[in-house]
Each structure stands twice: as C-alpha cells, then as structure tokens.
Amino acid sequence: xxxxxxxxLAANGYALTLTGRPWAADLFAAYAWSAVSxxxxxxxxxxxxxxxxxxxxxxxxxxxxxxxxFRLAGISTTAYASDGRSWLLGKAVPVAVADHMVEHYYRxxxxxxxxxPTIPPDINLQISNHARKRAHELLSAHGAGSxxxxxxxxxxxxxxxxxxxxxxxxxxxxxxxESGLHVVALPGPNETATVRDALPGAxxxxxxxxxxxxxxxxxxxxxxxxxxxxxxxxAAAGTRLISVFGVTEPQKTRPWxxxxxxxxxxxxxxxxxxxxxxxxxxxxx
Length: 285
Prior knowledge:
Blueprint: H1 3-11, E1 17-20, H2 23-27, E2 34-37, H3 42-51, E3 56-59, H4 64-72, E4 76-80, E5 91-93, H5 101-110, H6 129-141, E6 149-152, E7 158-159, E8 162-163, H7 169-178, E9 183-185, H8 192-198, E10 203-204, H9 210-218, E11 222-226, H10 229-236, E12 241-244, H11 250-253, E13 260-263, H12 272-284
Parallel strand pairs: 1-2, 3-4, 4-5, 6-9, 6-11, 9-10, 11-12, 12-13
Antiparallel strand pairs: 7-8
C-alpha cells in the first residue's frame, strides 16, 4: 500500500533506496530502485544503513527503534510523530488518524514534494516479464490451465483478539471445483499444510518469491482473499478481487483498487451466500 507514495517520490526525481525486509528487493524487482535488506542486530542495521551513503530518509514504519536506527546512521528522516520519537526525526509529521493506509503513506511522501496529485484509484504494481515466465511455467507444471481462480485463505495473527480469516473457504473451494473451475492457492512461508487443510482438492503450488506470486495473481480470473497481504498484492496486480472482511476496518485497509469488491464489515463476517453471490457476479462479467 506504500507503492503510490514511492511512485510519487520517483516521479519527483528522488533516487530511491528501499531498506527493510528481504522480500522488498523481489517485490520491486521490475523497478530501477535499490533495495537493501536489514538483518541481524540493531547495530548491524545501523551499519548497513550507514553504508548506503544515504543522507535523507522517509520512514514508513511507526516504531521508536527504526527512527533510532536512522538517526544513529546519520540519516535525516521525515516520518510520522508516533511512539515518542519526534526528537529523533528531521521532520515530524502529525498523524491523520482517519486516513486509509494508502493515504497515510502518500500524505507522508507528499511532505517531500512541491505538489502532490490526487492518489490514483489503482496501485499498478510493475511485474517483470521474467516473473511472468516463471509464473506460467509453475502453473503449467501443476496443470492449472490458462484461466483459474485463486483462493487466499490464510490471514495470520489476531485483530483485537479476533481471527482475521474467513471461515467459508473450504466450502467455497469445493463448490468452485464442482463447477469445473481450476482453484489455485500459493502458500506463504510455512503455510503449505494450513492451505492444504483449508482448500481440499485445490492446486496448491509450491512456495514462490513475491514477484512470481504477483504474476500468478495478475493472470487469475478472480482472487478471493481475506484482508491480508495476498489480497493487497492482488489489488496491486490489477486483478479482479473479492475481499472478505469481518474484524478489520475497511476504511483503513480495504484493497486500493477499482476492480475490488468488498464484502463484510469490521463488525462481523458476511453470510456465505453474500460472498458467493459476489463471486458469481464477478465470474459472469
């Protein structure tokens, strides 16, 4: 959901160096941006940041510790004034609590440009032809066919003590298979057994890198997902998406896509029949 903010900075002449988790380099492989993985201890993080030679930074995390690392690395940082860290920042930006997360990041990046245009309605993640080739080979090797539906049943962690995963995926998988559709799932790290249990009979692909995952989502006929990373990745890839909510806040984390249909609210899961009706409509279009 930070991609529109990154695109805004790049469009205004900033040479971007992305720092953080190892998957960033793979996810943004189609972009002309550097990516540096932060691994090891805090002091190793500081050393890695210092070695980039970067002197100005935009911090999209909210923690005190990440602001401290940037400060110790000699990077003058623009970031939100959260977690008591304002004194560590070059520029502390007040938090607008009502923002969607896309707006949250975009508003922060706008602090570094003269004039920011309206946020586009779609994210438009760039995907390399190499990633598309890997996706095609993987799908072909497992007999997925050219038109398939992707189910993303996993949503890790709790939100205010409640499970974030919708309980209707097993039934949905069975009914989609009975209708003659190819049902595909791509587990994340250590999720294969969970996905197989949730989606009996589906084509469960082996774990793949994020750029390949994005290409698989991009070419799907439809994706059905919880409020989760795969759902947001599908939205960024420009895929038709049914996004099922039940405990998290759509106004904050709904998929940022004109091709997404939102079912459910933060106050409870939707009826299965409502989800199925949205899916049937999407498959007819």
